[in-house]
Amino acid sequence: MTNARQAATGRRLAAGVLHGAWRLRSLGAWRVPAEGPVILAVNHSHNVDGPVLMALAPRPVHFLVKREAFVGPLGVFLRGIGQLPVDRHNADRAAIASALAVLGDGGVLGIFPEGTRTSGDFAAIRAGLAYFALRSGAPVVPVAILGGSDRGGRVVRTLPPLRARIDAVFGDPFTVGDAGGGGRRTRAALDEATTRVQQRLTTHLKEARRLTGR
Questions:
Q1: Rounded CA gap, 87 and 71, in Å?
Q2: pTM of whole model > 0.90?
Q3: How far apart, in Å, are the Cα atoms of 47 and each of 2, 28, 72, 113, 214?
Q4: How far apart are CA 7 and CA 128, in angstroms?
Q5: How does DSSP classify residue 181?
Q6: What percentage of the chain reaches a pLDDT higher than 90?
Q7: Dihedral of the CA atoms 19, 173, 69, 5 (nearest 10)?
Q8: Taking 80 as the threshold, does the pLDDT of residue 209 lie above it?
Q9: Which of 124, 160, 163, 196 is deepest in the core (most CB within 10 A)?
């Protein structure tokens, strides 16, 4: 089974499970390009954010997932649905190569720019997203996952309450560097690109909150 087919399997599984546990809603998914490489940049406040995006994105998504999750049966499962392990604490050349290969094959790469679960407001993002965008030339689509933040009804503390409504709001795609990946990749260029990306993601999050009333 190819990585693309694995990710498609993961999408079907996520949709089947999550639609039964929460009330999922997708807004603006038509903004995701129908073909070619794409990076989905997602805020991250719940453990379920990745699976929610996998279920609601119009195309199968390969996520960079922390290496610690790839242990035992869970690791076998994550690899089986096309997800990519990454060492969040060190330069991980294997993860970089895998992510660029997804984009090089015209696939969809999912990234949490904040690197880990936070308040989900894009207040501090890492340079990885800008690097992949500059290196590949792939457009970035900002995604805001909103909802399920009320404290009542939780079965697991890091998950939204069961049957809570969760929205995935897709924004307009934008490019970080030159089309085709020809943009400068110096440290200064990467810092500048990271700042521009953060501004775009923050603006989208504000608009998504206005749109959904969250």
A1: 13
A2: no
A3: 26, 23, 19, 15, 19
A4: 21
A5: T
A6: 31
A7: 70
A8: yes
A9: 160
Domains and CATH numbers, the chain: 3-149+161-212 (3.40.1130.10)
CB 197 within 8 A of CB 131: no
Please tell me the chain's helix, strand, coil percentages from 3-state DSSP, rounded to the nearest 5: 40, 15, 40
Rg (CA), the chain: 16
| Segment 122-180, tens digit of pLDDT | 544 567 888 899 889 999 999 999 986 544 444 455 677 877 889 999 999 999 865 44
Q: Taking each helix axis as running N to C, give the angle between helix 128-136 and helix 93-104, from 0 to 180 degrees, rounded to the nearest 10.
A: 40
How far apart (Å, rounded) are the C-alpha atoms in residues 114 and 85? 16
Type of residue found at 71:
V
- Nearest CA among 124, 119, 177, 183 for reference residue 145: 119
